[in-house]
Specification:
Bound molecules: nicotinamide-adenine-dinucleotide
Strand content: 15-25%
Largest sheet: 7 strands, mixed
Helix content: 40-55%
Structural class: alpha/beta
Strand order of the largest sheet: 1-2-9-6-5-3-4
Order of helices and strands: EEHEHEHEHEHEEEHHHHHHHEEH
Oligomer: single chain
Number of helices: 13
Distance between the termini: 52 Å
Length: 369
């Protein structure tokens, strides 16, 4: 499968996303193409470092970079202020300079964390994303949102900093645990639904191959998602309008994660549940159709994302929705998709949300509390 390049056109902040199998073999030369740095801070998590750190480090070294490696513990818990501060202190201790470079090697946690460190160190140094999860390749590595979590909530602190380059090697995804693959598939399904009929029908036809991690299908799928995301980011770099669509499924999804406790449900599963919910809501409050609800259900089923079997208390979910940073003027907002490629973001009255949450909970055998 040949390499694909998606150009993210943001004027002086433009960059390429390289997508293909086996790209990490010469990642050093790829990075050298966008940086004259002497030193590289290679930031990763312990799991990814064990799998890919040596390959990537050696390749960077042979491209003439002095490589400083920083590994954090794997998982969302590392995406915090304290660890970001430790990275910044370490950059300074090792004399990382204005012209030097940060390379984020890992999933979305590492991309957000290392990107945030790069955005703030010396008021901003260059960084390159080398995403190693499906979610990071199709979504988080593109678009320049970086940040960390606070105790009060996820992603409450951050900065916009576009990378200089994204190297998405699909071969690196083969070691992903099944649950992480499925979680990424939820974002793929979200993207296909937002993008429109062409991607959606392609994904419907290739779902089984994607689940089997077929190389050609994976490269094609990642490229399609990146192309979509780059178009959205181009039209709304700083998240003031069109970029809102990327939150499809996230209003209920985030609430589920908050109420159940982070880590109780994989992010992708929560988002997929949110997509199923929003499509049903759309039938009532927008122009959604039952046909689309069913089509989307079948798509999610076909990429291996089960319907959540457990109910959560509707009252707690509604409270969590109000606490979300996307809520505005006391109103809960939903991205509503009426048909493939047709979406809007609307406030929905509490009474309507509550009624749907109760139906949702009852469908899982839950109470109405
Ligand atoms: N910046 C954005 O626009 C944006 C968009 C969506 C999500 N995010 C953020 O992304 C984060 C989630 O990202 P994620 O799902 O990639 O999580 P993650 O980075 O925690 O990775 C998931 C797990 O997979 C492991 N892993 C990574 N690559 C692997 C590989 N190749 N083989 C085996 N294991 C591997 C990691 O060690 C980790 O345990 C969240 O913090 C979320 O807020 C950011």
């Amino acid at each position: 499968v040949s390499e694909r390049i998606v150009h993210v056109d943001l004027g002086p902040d433009s960059y390429d996303v390289q997508v293909g199998a086996g790209l990490l073999g010469d990642v050093g030369a790829r990075v050298r193409g966008v940086s004259s740095a002497r030193k590289v801070a290679l930031v990763s998590d312990a799991t990814v470092a064990r799998l890919l750190g040596a390959t990537v480090g050696a390749s960077l070294h042979s491209a003439g970079f002095e490589v400083l490696t920083f590994d954090v513990e794997a998982g969302e818990r590392s995406k915090n202020w304290r660890i970001a501060g430790e990275l910044l202190e370490a950059f300074a201790y090792h004399g990382l300079g204005r012209n030097d470079l940060v390379v984020a090697l890992g999933g979305g946690v590492i991309g957000d964390l290392a990107g945030f460190a790069a955005a703030t160190y010396l008021r901003g140094v260059d960084f390159v994303q080398v995403p190693t999860t499906l979610l990071a390749q199709v979504d988080s590595s593109v678009g320049g949102k970086t940040g960390v979590d606070l105790a009060a909530g996820k992603n409450l602190v951050g900065a916009f900093q576009q990378p200089k380059l994204v190297v998405a090697d699909t071969s690196a995804l083969m070691t992903l645990p099944e649950s992480e693959w499925t979680s990424g598939c939820a974002e793929v399904a979200k993207t296909a639904v937002l993008d429109g009929e062409e991607f959606l029908s392609t994904l419907e036809a290739s779902a089984a191959s994607l689940m089997a991690r077929d190389e050609a299908v994976t490269v094609d799928t990642v490229q399609r998602c990146v192309r979509f995301k780059s178009a959205v980011v181009r039209s709304d770099e700083k998240d003031r309008g069109a970029r809102e669509c990327l939150n499809y499924g996230h209003t209920l999804g985030h609430a589920i994660e908050t109420v159940a406790g982070y880590g109780a449900f994989p992010h992708g599963l929560a988002v997929a549940e949110g997509m199923r919910f929003a499509a049903r809501l759309s039938v009532e409050v927008a122009q959604g159709s039952v046909e689309f609800v069913q089509r989307q259900d079948r798509l999610l089923d076909s990429v291996g994302i089960p319907v959540m079997s457990q109910a959560l208390a509707p009252g707690s979910l509604l409270r969590a929705m109000h606490a979300d940073k996307k809520a505005r003027d006391g109103q809960v907002r939903f991205v509503l998709v009426d048909a493939p490629g047709v979406w809007q973001c609307d406030p929905v009255p509490d009474a309507t949300v509550m009624e749907h949450l109760q139906a949702w909970s009852a469908s899982k055998g839950g109470g109405s509390g």
